[in-house]
Amino acid sequence: MSDGKNAIKLNYDTGWEYAAAPESTDHININDRYELFIDGKFTAPKSGAYFDTINPANEKTLASVAQASKADVNRAVKAARGAYDNVWSKMKAAERGKYIYRIARIIQERAREFAVIESMDGGKPIREARDVDIPLAAAHFFYYAGWADKLDYAFPQKTPKPLGVAGQIIPWNFPLLMAAWKIAPALACGNTVVLKPAETTPLTALKLAEVIQAADLPPGVVNIITGDGSTGAAIVDHDDIDKVAFTGSTDVGRIIQRALAGTDKKYTLELGGKAANIIFEDAPIDQAVEGIVNAIFFNQGHVCCAGSRLLVQESVAKEVITKLKERMQTLVVGDPLDKNTDIGAINSAAQLERINDYLALGQKEGAEMYQAGGKTPKKGYWCQPTLFTDVAQSHRVVREEIFGPVLAIQTFRTLDEAVSKANNTQYGLSGGVWTDKGAKIFKVGQNIRAGVIWANTFNKFDPTSPFGGYKESGVGREGGLHGLSAYVNLH
Ligand code: NAI
Ligand code: MG
To answer: Is residue 5 part of a domain?
Structure first.
């Protein structure tokens, strides 16, 4: 802990240095072993198999978690079906709402514990887990709790009915938040769920199972089972699932879509992205530089809607790139639990390898690479923030999702050129525009084929706002009213 007096000091070689300010882990309870949460109880997996989840910042094992097999998926779906038929779909909507409010409030009460575990299990900076992930997760439960008894107003002239049992599969970049995105609207509409967190970040979902017990939800309404891709596939393929909600890679999204073709299961898919962040010459440049940092270095670039392509108007390109490089030198890469840290650990060894392959590839393709240098801890998985300039549209670092703190920079002369470059991608999840002129914001916003366009900001989320992709970025919308409609049949 810093004593305040020496919290910041000037080092004449390296610039300003902050004294360490690590978040304490004394109050954190992590079991050595976690079972599957089925029918309101923690229960051992039929196979007896377990796998470890580690802390990617020091490679230490945090806990061993159960590997759910097909037999366990069967048990979970059966519990969800029983709870749906006998309790949840019959309950008065206002009562359902009360349970969801209760979950929201308990998450708020335990926010600090959730934030620390999220940071330890996934590598994200505590500042983000504390200020973004956990408050937004609670906000989603609050928001959808409010809709539970107002569905007739959400869908006027219609009779919304729940779908049944939802199978939900989530990734490792926003573990608790993704669980909230999936569970809250499903419950509000009267569905029951089987949720599977990602293998590298299961702990906050298992803590959420404890919250669900504490909130006294009827057994089987929410089932949380851990496992790898084979567990996910068994959920997707299960005959008694009515709806699949998936967030993750476009490759797995394709596998799921193929598996569901010809069935009457509904599905929503939130997949990859390669968003363009467009900076016009009339933009407030210093704010735009902060916006670029937020768009791509936030959460180590492990963000499907990250602004991983920068399109900057030629007349200000030199200024923007110089300022961006200066800013990158001040970004702190290191201990995720330190409150000064800007860029935490890469989520896994596999993800770091994928990013490093792209760094090598970008250079081989002829791009100019810039990294801000700086030291990183010996243990753990780290990647310095990285820029690629001198890139062509055909380069793979411009076309493919890297999912790391890696930015490809291109220039443009006119608005039309910026829009056509931004749209020259297989993806369409998000985009950004920075300018002083409202007319340019509207023109760019209307012409970019992506689900969300931020203007003079980036990576802002709110439960009332729908989110989802065009093209290979996915199918359907989550969030807001749109997010409700993915969990009801309308007659
Ligand atoms: P992934 O798509 O394999 O994992 C996401 C989730 O899907 C996990 O819970 C996983 O267990 C599950 N899963 C894997 N195979 C499955 C299958 N056949 N059926 C059902 N569920 C399955 O992502 P992965 O391998 O962790 O990351 C690979 C790349 O995917 C990343 O480098 C990144 O580019 C992208 N990605 C994109 C995300 C996004 O939010 N758009 C999130 C995570 C990864
Ligand atoms: Mg982990």
So the answer is: no
